[in-house]
């Protein structure tokens, strides 16, 4: 039997981890992939969009670890 070469993985634009594409959410500003772990932590913007928003919005990718 031949092996499948397909991959269902995307890189999270907030943390950089590679996760299954079906287990994530889009950035609220640009729509790039954010993994479910970041979403559970309250991250709703990718690093690029978070850099464009003022600090203290509570949902940026550049938040310090809790």
Index terms:
66 residues; alpha+beta; two-stranded antiparallel sheet; two-stranded antiparallel ribbon; 18% strand
What does this structure look like?
It is a single chain. With 66 residues, the protein is of the alpha+beta class. The chain is 17% helix and 18% strand. It is built from two helices and four strands; from the N terminus they run E-E-E-E-H-H. The protein has helices at 36-40, 47-52; strands at residues 9-11, 18-20, 24-26, 33-35. It has a two-stranded antiparallel sheet. A two-stranded antiparallel ribbon has the order 3-4. The radius of gyration is 14 Å and the shape is elongated. The N and C termini lie far apart (47 Å). The mean pLDDT is 82.
Task: Please sum up the structure shown.
With 66 residues, the protein is α+β, with helices and mostly antiparallel strands.
Question: Topology, please?
Answer:
Elements lengths: L8 E3 L6 E3 L3 E3 L6 E3 H5 L6 H6 L14
Antiparallel strand pairs: 1-2, 3-4
Overall mean confidence score, pLDDT = 82
Biggest pleated sheet = 2 strands, antiparallel
Spell the H/E element sequence.
EEEEHH
For the biggest β-sheet, the strand order reads 1-2
Report how far the terminal alpha carbons are from each other: 47 Å
**Approximately what portion of the residues adopt beta-strand conformation?**
15-25%
Can you tell me the residue ranges where pLDDT is under 50 for at least 5 consecutive residues? none
Specify the structural class: alpha+beta
Task: Describe the global form.
Answer: elongated
Over the alpha carbons, how many angstroms does the gyration radius reach? 14 Å
Helix content percent band = 10-25%
Helical run tally: 2
Q: How many strands appear in the DSSP assignment?
A: 4
């Amino acid at each position: 039997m031949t092996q499948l070469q397909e991959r269902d993985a995307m890189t999270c634009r907030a943390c950089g981890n590679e996760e299954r594409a079906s287990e994530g959410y889009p950035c609220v500003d640009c729509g790039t992939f954010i993994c479910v772990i970041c979403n559970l932590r309250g991250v709703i913007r990718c690093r690029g969009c978070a850099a464009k928003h003022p600090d203290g919005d509570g949902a940026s990718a550049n938040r310090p670890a809790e």
